[in-house]
């Protein structure tokens, strides 16, 4: 997948901009606040319907503007054109038009343009709360597995309904208790499917991750474990076995769940445990190790997508080189050489081999901004 061109109007600090990257590695450099990250944000919007940090659409409006517009053209490996237009105004929600057709459900667009991102704030995937790691694995799987995305959407809806029922049972004691069994059946089926898909993903992903991580750090052995609210589960467990375990768990904790008005088990409570040399990274690793681990996760995601889809995903890497020495930067460039189209932002001019180097200031002088 590659971006041919993108047009910005009133998007963050870009009043008007046309950007045409090369098909290989592009490095956009300039001072902080000059609009480098905004370039990536716009591309991310077109690929995944939202910005890097999932901020409200209104936060992407240029100052004093009433609308923003993004228009882009992508080409797949088979040279199929995917045109994406995103328009947002304060009066209505954003409109997404793909190949001249209005996209009613944003989830239908996810996966059409596979995309890998890196940004420094994402370090919380490695050392932050469990919700950040769940968001990482869910986002990674959703782009290659439509059924998983559908299951996630359904699970969140059922979880909300079940928690509302638990609250009624606790506070009013008038709701029919047999309704809880119905919602428990639904959530058990969905939870089993989601957890099973996550476990299979980790098994396949870890092979690529260890291979790539060896190119970044030869003296460290990484691992990823799935920590389930069910306790320890085997890697070859079936969806039906997981369903039985979830049903039993919900029956065991039913009184406690009613008392707390919360569903206490399920994929919304699970976590990924990242390890280096069998030690949990968030407890023992240095800042350099944390950053290298995150870079390894993102670049391994690229390889996994390519193996799964036969399509090299677009790579958007924001400030990936900060706090890295020259040797590590060279290692990353060497990995990226075979990754298709890469768009990197950097505060400093970074070159390596056949890299397209773009100055934000030069774009301004040409009247692009």
As laid out across the biggest beta sheet, the strand order is 2-1-4-5-6-7
The fraction of residues assigned to DSSP E strands is: 15-25%
Number of domains: 2
String of helices and strands = EEEHEEEEEHHHHEHHEEHHEHEEH
Q: Tell how many strands the DSSP assignment holds.
A: 14
Question: Per the principal axes of the C-alpha atoms, what is the gross shape?
Answer: globular
Portion of residues in helices? 40-55%
Q: How much is the average pLDDT?
A: 90
Distance between the termini: 26 Å
Rg on CA atoms, Å: 22 Å
Q: How many H/I helices? A: 11
Structure overview:
With 369 residues, this protein is an alpha/beta fold. It folds into two domains: 1-114 and 313-369, 3-Layer(aba) Sandwich (Rossmann fold); 120-310, Glutathione S-transferase Yfyf (Class Pi), Chain A, domain 2 (Up-down Bundle), CATH 1.20.1050. It is 43% helix and 22% strand. The chain is built from eleven helices and 14 strands. A six-stranded antiparallel beta sheet has the order 2-1-4-5-6-7, with helices on one face. Strand 10 and strand 11 form a beta hairpin. Helix 4 (146-171) packs across helix 7 and helix 5 (178-216) crosses helix 9 (287-309). The longest helix has 39 residues, at 178-216. The relative contact order is 0.17. The mean pLDDT is 90.
Brief digest:
The chain has 369 residues and is an alpha/beta fold. Helices cover 43% and strands 22% of the residues.
Task: Describe the protein's topology.
Elements: E1 2-11, E2 14-19, E3 25-29, H1 36-48, E4 67-75, E5 81-89, E6 92-98, E7 101-102, E8 115-118, H2 124-127, H3 130-142, H4 146-171, H5 178-216, E9 222-227, H6 239-252, H7 254-260, E10 271-276, E11 279-280, H8 281-284, H9 287-309, E12 314-318, H10 326-336, E13 342-346, E14 355-359, H11 360-365
Parallel strand pairs: 3-13, 3-14, 8-12, 12-13
Antiparallel strand pairs: 1-2, 1-4, 4-5, 5-6, 6-7, 9-10, 10-11
